[in-house]
Amino acid sequence: MTTSPGLRDRKKAATRAALVAAAADLAREKGLDGVTADAIAARAGVSTRTFHNYFAGKEEAVLAHLEGLVHAWVGRLHARPAGEPVWESMEAIAREIVSDPGGDFVELCTTMELLEQSPALLARRVEMEVRASQLLVEAIAERTGTDPRVDLYPSLVRYAAVSAMKSAVELWLAGTSGATSPEELVLAAFEQLRQGLS
Question: Which parts of the chain are coiled coil (predicted)?
Fold first, then answer.
């Protein structure tokens, strides 16, 4: 009896997801220097050889987690109401992410802190961000009927929205803003952008 390709693909995706989650969890617990491929594989319940079938090293596995957050953002954008202006959609998504204390926001904060602490991750982040940002730019272009090969708009929206959320999160983590919630800072960031940062 043979396994259908669909089932094989689902098993591969599940294994990869388990490895990515294990890598992110261990990196948060021990710092990247304290993590090994063996430990990631053991946490995910697979062999080290299986780990290397999916990732060249621990940095790639941790960055895959961050890339997954971008894929989630793209999914949220596709799920927004069709007639909603794209800037409102991006603001709503950013607010959803930072107002979920037990989910995406915790993941975002801990991953950002991890990236800042690890030169090895920062060095590899650039190539990941190029891939991930292109997905978001294409989703914005599709929603706005623009062409990212000739129009600045999709890329500008992507950079502005992501930077607004990143700036708000960084200020919230610093604990110096006086804001009562990260969502308050996200709202302020998007409002300042609406006004053109005059």
Answer: none
What tens digit of pLDDT does each residue of 55-98 get? 988 888 888 877 777 788 889 999 999 889 999 999 999 898 88
* Tokens, residue 137: 């730019």
Q: Which amino acid is present at 1?
A: M
Sign of CA dihedral 158, 159, 162, 165: negative
Length of the chain: 198
Q: How far apart are CA 137 and CA 134, in angstroms?
A: 5
Q: Which residue has the tokens 């989630």?
A: 72
Under 8 Å between Cβ of 18 and 44: yes
Distance CA 3, CA 104 (A): 34
DSSP state of 82: T
